[in-house]
Amino acid sequence: MSDAPVRDAPAQSRANQKKELPEHFRDYKHVWVFIEQERGEVHPVSWELLGAGRKLADKLGVELAGVVLGAPGEATREAVAEAFRYGADLAYLVEDPILADYRNEPYSKALTQLVNTHKPEILLLGATTLGRDLAGSVATTLLTGLTADCTELAVDADGSLAATRPTFGGSLLCTIYTLNYRPQMATVRPRQMPMPARDANREGRVVSFKADLDEDSIITKILKFIPDRESTKTNLAFADVVVAGGLGLQSAENFQLVRNLASVLGAEFGGSRPLVQKGWIGSDRQIGQTGKTIRPKLYIAAGISGAIQHRVGVEGADLIVAINTDKNAPIFDIAHLGVVTDAIRLLPALTEAFRRRLSPHARDRLAS
Ligand SMILES: Cc1cc2nc3c(=O)[nH]c(=O)nc-3n(C[C@H](O)[C@H](O)[C@H](O)COP(=O)(O)OP(=O)(O)OC[C@H]3O[C@@H](n4cnc5c(N)ncnc54)[C@H](O)[C@@H]3O)c2cc1C
């Protein structure tokens, strides 16, 4: 007999583990999307998620529901009607004056109670400031798994949600499963998923739910609402045309060339992360994994190498034009059109060419 120490068999990889869903989770069915609305304005990520949720629900053969929380009234009802137009079969409506403005405590309570009563198998939220805050506390209260900032959602052969997201600083993608708990929760950043078609004639069922909420037991009080005027300044995520610069521009002064071209095209401007770190642009202009995800019709990247953390934020663009002095730069792997040249020389020429080409009428329209 060998003296070698007896070693345990290697632990089975979780990826190969068979799903053993406890009995009490087996009646969790249907796909839900949290419809994020504040003061009557629904965040567009909610519609993008209904598009993604529709595909999951169809694959599973279940219904797609929108979840609307808010104060009783017209705006909340309109959010429900709009959810049907973007693909929901039904909407869970929780109306309560306590839910007029977002506060973590009552929203978490209401959503948790709704989940425990109507039992969805998948619950999706936008990875916005509000959605991230709410998703974390709801998942913790329900003791279930939450995959944050997903870039892809799919249904596996066994019906599990396969939630893919970047990991190790964005250098790898990993797919995460919630095998033994329900609901399977995920957040997705705005503009990660395409906007689904809107059908103005589509209708659905409303399921009203009375949440057990008591203002006296809620610690956070809203004393005054002060809108952040800065927050609407950048429309990067939703712009049709985006011009961006990277370290290849070499100085903050040269970054002005990006702004000039953006101005002539009526476009938004942005940049890579090092530019934020150097103070050339504000953080609201950063594009990429830790900045904004964009889905423009045209994206012009000047002096940007195309690191994976930048790419994940721009891959949804219809047309990517890259300008770089290095013909082997990774940005050319995703660019539809590539120009191997000095951006500092090309950008002024492009700006001038567009200025001459675009009629004053078109310029006015783009600028408006
Ligand atoms: C956790 C984590 C999160 C991150 N998140 C983000 C993110 O959200 N967004 C992001 O952008 N980055 C992010 N990064 C940083 C990322 O890894 C890269 O370092 C960064 O994107 C590189 O920026 P860049 O392309 O401007 O600079 P560089 O990589 O230095 O590339 C400069 C490019 O310009 C070219 N060039 C040089 N001179 C010229 C010229 N005259 N004309 C034309 N081209 C020229 C060069 O050939 C080169 O390709 C993140 C990194 C980490 C670790």
Structure description:
The structure is a single chain. 39% of the residues are buried. It contains 10 helices and 17 strands. 29% of the residues lie in helices and 22% in strands. With 368 residues, it is an alpha/beta fold. The protein is globular and about 65 Å long. The site of flavin-adenine dinucleotide (FAD) has 29 residues, from helix 6, helix 7, strand 16 and helix 9.
Briefly say what this structure is.
With 368 residues, this protein is α/β, with parallel strands linked by helices. 29% of the residues lie in helices and 22% in strands. Residues 169-170, 246-248, 272-274, 286-291, 303-305, 307, 309-310, 313, 323-326, 329, 342-344 line the site of flavin-adenine dinucleotide.
Mean pLDDT across every amino acid position: 91
Relative strand content: 15-25%
Q: Calculate Rg over CA atoms.
A: 24 Å
For the sheet with most strands, the description reads:
7 strands, parallel
Order of helical and strand elements: EEEHEHEHEHEEEEEEEHEHEHEHEHH
Spatial strand sequence of the major β-sheet: 7-11-6-1-4-5-12
Attached small molecules: flavin-adenine dinucleotide
Q: Could you list the spans in which at least 5 consecutive residues all have pLDDT below 50?
A: 1-10
Helix content: 25-40%
Oligomerization status of the protein chains: single chain
Q: Measure the end-to-end span.
A: 84 Å
The number of distinct helices, counting runs of at least 4 residues, comes to 10
Total strands: the figure is: 17
